[in-house]
From TrEMBL:
This is Neurotrimin isoform X3. It is a lipid-anchor; GPI-anchor. PANTHER family: IGLON FAMILY OF IMMUNOGLOBULIN SUPERFAMILY-RELATED, NEUROTRIMIN. One of its GO terms (cellular component) is plasma membrane. It comes from Balaenoptera musculus. The lineage of its organism: Eukaryota, Metazoa, Chordata, Craniata, Vertebrata. Belongs to the immunoglobulin superfamily. IgLON family. Residues 1-25 are annotated as: Disordered. Keywords: Cell adhesion, Cell membrane, Disulfide bond, Glycoprotein, GPI-anchor, Immunoglobulin domain, Lipoprotein, Membrane, Repeat, Signal.
């Protein structure tokens, strides 16, 4: 509640007081209203309410055509009116005029209508190429005049980026993409908030190009990851020939920022350098990725590993520690015999 009042006027033992009150915030079914009154006595012969120079009520007679203005009381001690559904056009001076035996007197109160902030114009979502300039607009109304601020909704953004209706960004970067929040506040009600989405377009760049080594007959995967807005389209090449989906033994998996070239059964002719090309409407980039042969362990390598394990005292399965020299030699012979047999079998 905000109380509006006028200083009492004194003279000849006569006193009139004019006060008014206005409800500032109501639910929608309880619109704001103004009640204002004069305190009078029995020496008053005539009384009237005026808004500026317009007579609203004279005694019990209604002079205005506005149905929102009603007479609440006209007694020997009080003369009051009510204005329902108050809006900004009701702002201004309200005067209680009384006539006594001596001379007329008046008391006045000035109504100031406070209005919650409202955003009446805001920029649409925008898509712009990196390096260009943008201007965002947020126009708000209210009484008192609301304060407008812009804020970038981003984990890296700190605080407000602008305290103005207009937000100017010169040479925008991809890090400045995202939602921008406009807030309008004037302490009459909670701030109103609207958002604008800014999309910054930029050409692709490959952030990861991952080669791999695979034995013949196994499955191998080359991976290419690219960042771009709009999302990049991927193509794979070998020796200037494009690889297409459906080629025997080759599969391509594409996601918005990732492409995989999968070899289901690697053969000798699959090894070599491959080129990943990422493209969008702003440009393209490429990277070379290698699929190389990874040798499987041979029988002699396995034999050497087994020999090393078997002849290492105190380590591995069946190892004997803290024994005499004769016992140690016998243990070595027990392991060596089956190894020699295995070696002979592998030669055939």
């Amino acid at each position: 509640m905000a109380e509006l009042g006028a200083l009492p006027r004194k003279g000849g033992g006569h006193r009139e007081t004019l006060r008014g009150s206005r409800d500032e915030m109501f639910p929608p079914n309880w619109p704001p209203r103004l009640r204002t009154w004069c305190t009078i006595d029995n020496r008053v012969t005539r009384v009237a309410w005026l808004n500026r120079s317009t007579i609203l009520y004279a005694g019990n007679d209604k002079w205005c055509l506005d149905p929102r203005v009603v007479l609440l009381s006209n007694t020997q001690t009080q003369y009051s009116i009510e204005i329902q559904n108050v809006d900004v056009y009701d702002e201004g001076p309200y005067t209680c005029s009384v006539q006594t035996d001596n001379h007329p007197k008046t008391s006045r109160v000035h109504l100031i209508v406070q209005v919650s902030p409202k955003i009446v114009e805001i920029s649409s979502d925008i898509s712009i190429n990196e390096g260009n300039n943008i201007s965002l607009t947020c126009i708000a109304t209210g009484r008192p005049e609301p304060t407008v601020t812009w804020r970038h909704i981003s984990p890296k953004a700190v605080g407000f980026v602008s305290e103005d209706e207009y937000l100017e960004i010169q040479g925008i970067t991809r890090e400045q993409s995202g939602d921008y929040e406009c807030s309008a506040s004037n302490d009459v009600a909670a701030p109103v908030v609207r958002r604008v989405k800014v999309t910054v377009n930029y050409p692709p760049y490959i952030s990861e190009a991952k080669g791999t080594g695979v034995p013949v007959g196994q499955t191998g995967t080359l991976q290419c990851e690219a960042s771009a807005v709009p999302s990049a389209e991927f193509q794979w090449y070998k020796d200037d020939k494009r690889l297409v989906e459906g080629k025997k033994g080759v599969k391509v998996e594409n996601r918005p920022f990732l492409s995989k070239l999968i070899f289901l059964n690697v053969s000798e002719h699959d090894y070599g350098n491959y080129t990943c090309v990422a493209t969008n409407k702003l440009g393209h980039t490429n990277a070379s990725i290698t699929l190389f042969e990874l040798s499987e362990p041979t029988s002699s390598t396995l034999l050497q590993e087994v020999k090393t394990t078997a002849l290492t005292p105190g380590k591995g399965p069946g190892a004997i520690s803290e024994v005499s020299n004769g016992a140690s030699r016998r243990a070595g012979c027990v392991w060596l015999l089956p190894l020699l047999v295995l070696h002979l079998l592998l030669k055939f």
